[in-house]
Amino acid sequence: MRRSAWRIAQVVLGILVVALAARQVLANWHAVRSTPFTWRVQPLLLVLSVLVVWAMYALLVATWRLLVERWGGRLTMREAASIWTVSSLGKYVPGKVWAIAGMAVLARRVGVPPWIATGAAVLNQVLAIGAGAVVVAITGTSLLEGRFPWIRTAMWIVLGLVVVGVLVLSSTDMVRRVLTAAGVEAGDTAGPPLGALLTAAVANVMAWSGYGVALWLLARGLTEVPLPLGLAIGAFAASYLIGFLALIAPAGLGVREGVFILMLDHAVGTPAAVALAVASRLLLTVTELGAAVPFLLSPRERSRVAP
């Protein structure tokens, strides 16, 4: 009965998440078509944009798997890809904890201890925020400082907090104290070594840059707007990061688009900024669904539930 209830819960949650994501696709598609802007579609560039996004997903999947394994867990690449892509759909449910919680639950189903799965998921998010703050501080804050003079300082403060968080999570004693306080048995395995953390940090910087490249290709594949590559990277990283930190907005909806338009308004004009903001949202929603659906539809590997 417990296994049947789990399967039913998975199906219900999966339908809810896909429905919420599909609603975003339909709403964004309508917004794209109704935007007063001249479109110039180049399919090859659009395909390249999607492929770049999926390549960044693969990089982040490998990064999360590295952290899990260095922390003492065991995952195949297929298991890691399935868990990462499916749990990522949790961002479309209001609240920021669903993706991490889903990652921990799904990882436990294939034998990864809960504290390792949760710790690696949280650590990967912390590294992503820190890497995003670095990218924004280098490429994007000059576009926001006119209206938000404190933005550069805020990004470096975020980075400082991330460094502290990484140091805490990389300390075996500190991790055990935190988990013990939360009532979770941490076992005897040490946290990921410094080399794994540095590798993960570099991978996250590469991912933010890759997403900017995908946006640059998207702009060239849909419009005649001369969007510089550096501006594309900065606008994507800043808007996505601020949208992520907006705790009440599912998938940063509305917040991310607002920051995106604010950053591109003076450079490409308001109509183009609005068009690219909506097109970027549509691109990411489609690629996230496209990456997760094959795993949702394919037969699951045998469960090896962790104790």
Give the overall form: globular
| Count of alpha/pi helices | 11
> Helix share of residues?
over 70%
Regions with pLDDT < 50 over 5+ consecutive residues?
none
- The mean pLDDT is 75
Q: What is the CA-CA span between the terminal residues?
A: 19 Å
Q: What oligomeric state is this?
A: single chain
Offer a concise description of the structure:
The chain has 307 residues and is an all-alpha fold. The chain has helices at residues 2-34, 43-70, 77-88, 98-109, 114-139, 151-170, 172-181, 194-222, 229-245, 255-268, 270-297.
Describe what this molecule looks like in 3D.
With 307 residues, the chain is mainly alpha-helical. It has one domain. Helix content is 75%, strand content 0%. Helix 1 runs antiparallel to helix 11, helix 3 packs antiparallel against helix 4 and helix 9 runs antiparallel to helix 10.
